[in-house]
Amino acid sequence: MATAAGLSKLVRDLAHDNDRDLLDRVDELLEEVGEQAEAIGLRQAFEAARTLDEASREARERVLASYFRVHDPDRGSLALLERLSGHQERLGAVYSDLLGLVATPVPDELRRPVLDAADHYLKAWGLHRRLARFRQRPAGKISWEQAHFLVKQLLIWRLFSSSSPTPAPVLRQYLQVVYEETLPWGNLTAQQLEFAARLIANHEGLAWQSAMSPTTTHQIDLTLTDGPRRCVAGGSAEVRRSVRFLATGSLRQSVELLLAAVRAGEALPQWLTELAMEPMAITGALQTLACTWSSEPPRRESAREDRSRPLLGAFGFEAVRELLGICEKLKKEGVPVEKPAPGATPVYVSESNRTHSAYRFGGYLDHGLALPPSEEDAKRAAATHAGSALPEIVQPTEPDPDPELAAAAAKEALLAALRRLELAVPNLALEHWTEIDSSGTGVGVLLPALLPRHAAGVLIAWRYDDLPEWRIGFVRRVGRDAKARPTMGIELVPPGFTCVVHMLQAGSRAKTAWKDSAEWLLGVIPGEKSEDVLLPVGSFVPEMPVSVLSALGERRARLRTVRDRGSDWERVALDYRN
């Protein structure tokens, strides 16, 4: 390993490389530090590790800023985030290896470098865990057991006191990661998770206690291999010496003050403005945190029942709109009979036109059965197709089919037609899920794997595999069950339908989603009684008059406000009074 001066010059030469190359080169040098630590001495090894840590700091910040700057990260930004995660793991491993070489008692000249290395080890560990959560991954090799051991070892070395009213920097860094672990990871977007982590990092009241208090909500045991747990009401009065308690009362107060500032439009802290979050996303995150850190643990709104039923799902506004449109078309026009007679005009099977009379139409029956056309039928079909005759109503000669069998046949025909139309939708990726529980407000599903698109706030279309009806949903939770299987919680929305929103005021479309349209957009109304409309993100223009054409007819309205927003959609409240 070169001298500290030579290493600093090498780092300066790296500064102009791209971030990926810089992280690669820094990791190579970090590996050399670990390999040559005993040869160059621990003090210089600690200094070299800190120099390389600082060399990659700006690259880390740029990678995170780039990731949060886009609504829907592409493969490149996700790959760079993966690379940053690997760098954090390497950085933490080097600090851990160097700390493992420290002798007891700690020499005076190493006391400050050891504390500094422990502090930066915990920073690397915390960011590594956060990056894993962004991508819905396990937290990696850096474990709670190692972090607990480090804190206990520092106490044994008497490098800091755990009883001081103001936590030492290294203990405060440890507590930041501990408090971050109390976050509802699966209920927040990656940007909201970063926001919550920065809120914790900038909070002055982080502390642990050896006894419970009225504001205690979580506890952590330094002899175990996991993180903090929610305190159980009425738990055992006997407390192990290794247990510490976390109070979240002051954090809740900070959340409430910040929430009031956002709603009042007041100036926000710099650490928050740097994230460039929309007020709606900030408000949603703060409301979730207030619930998480409340004295009573969050509870489900309604009881859930265990289920096991296959589901299909698709992601994004375009997929939702296409699939709902297919269902509407089938309900309105019916199902075309397969293998029509040559030259015949298709007749569709639908619930609205099904009667006891069979409309013989060039070999078609409304029951959905294709009969081989007779010579007379073929002549009539040809004449009808040419416009010289109208279809003739013929009373059926066969007995009416069994109603249950007829309903089952109609359902199967509708499902078959729906599946064919689904295959024709461009760029549609259907996922196969398994429903594991349900309630009046949502369903829980088991996923085959966790992917970047599985995130809180995403708009989805879903249907049961054996039912020909697509519905709307919002992802509200992503995580893993007790068996570590990937799961997702979906908020149910009443069956919706597509609509056309037509702009009535010319010149309102500048710099919005309207600018490339012919003054109209296709949207989705989430439920017959809803006064909202789902539109492409960027559609909202305050008080813009529009005409909404849907299955409910044509209605005049104004765009009132945005209730919610995702990466490719926004839920706009309509005012039909104007």
Describe this structure in words.
- About 7% of the residues have low confidence.
- The chain is 40% helix and 19% strand.
- It has a 6-stranded antiparallel barrel with strand order 5-8-9-12-11-10. A 6-stranded antiparallel β-sheet has the order 14-13-16-17-18-15.
- It folds into 5 domains: 159 residues; 110 residues, no CATH class; 106 residues, no CATH class; 39 residues, no CATH class; 79 residues, Thrombin, subunit H, CATH 2.40.10.
- The chain is elongated and about 100 Å long.
- The protein has 578 residues and is of the alpha+beta class.
- It contains 16 helices and 18 strands.
- Helix 2 packs antiparallel against helix 4 and helix 10 packs across helix 13.
Main beta-sheet annotation: 6 strands, antiparallel, barrel
Instruction: Output the radius of gyration.
Output: 31 Å
Distance between the termini: 75 Å
Counting DSSP H or I runs of 4 or more residues, the number of helices is 16
Domain count: the total is 5
Task: Please tell me what the overall shape is.
Answer: elongated
Q: Helicity level, as a percent range?
A: 25-40%
Q: Beta-sheet strand percentage? A: 15-25%
Structural class: alpha+beta
| Unreliable stretches covering 5 or more consecutive residues | 337-374
With strands numbered from the N-terminus, the spatial order across the biggest sheet is: 5-8-9-12-11-10
Mean pLDDT value? 82
Number of strands: 18
